Amino acid sequence: MKEILVNYMKRFSDMSETELDAIASNVPIATYKKGTVLLHQGDVPDKCYFILKGCIRKYTVDASGKETTFNFYTEEQSVTIFNHHSADKASNFSLNCLEDCVLVVGDLSTEQEAYDTNPALEAMTRKMIEGDIGAMHDEYAAFISSTPEERYKALLEQRPELIDRVPKYQLASFLGITPESLSRIKKRLGSPL
């Protein structure tokens, strides 16, 4: 599984294969069962993750009990809750394994120590984060400027694997619509879902 991580790191670094293998051999990998909550809303995050296998859902639950799905993360995606800007550092989100997962697990408390030991790792991580933030901004802009039907079509084009991997009500929430609206869109388009 570590070859997945090495191949991913190659995209963001000009380090040699040997250097990347050394980094990958020192990272902790853990397996989590479907249904495992990696982070509860309101807790202070102390871990970051990179998905080698599986699917993680990022969501919130409001005071009335309504769940809102903000994202799904799958293979070769990193999952980190950045909340250093908030006074109490508590997460506004929960992270839940929707499938059995194999994850690289990073300890946020030792992040700086790892960067001090290997400065190239910090540069590579910064490039990864910049890519993630850029993609997030593009996705948000597309989301707010599109209709629900356009969002569904974009999902079918960009992330079709989610259709079979996540519950339909969570998919509808992610698209910002009700499950009934999702069914109507699917029926109009004659699309599988």
Automatic annotation (TrEMBL):
What CDD domains does the entry give? CAP_ED
Cross-referenced Pfam families? cNMP_binding
Cyclic nucleotide-binding domain segment(s): 11-57
Write the signal peptide boundaries.
none
The record's keywords, sorted A to Z, are: Activator
Concerning InterPro entries, the annotation shows: cNMP-bd_dom (IPR000595), cNMP-bd_dom_sf (IPR018490), RmlC-like_jellyroll (IPR014710)
Q: Would you tell me the protein name for this molecule?
A: Crp/Fnr family transcriptional regulator
* Organism this protein belongs to: Thalassobacillus hwangdonensis
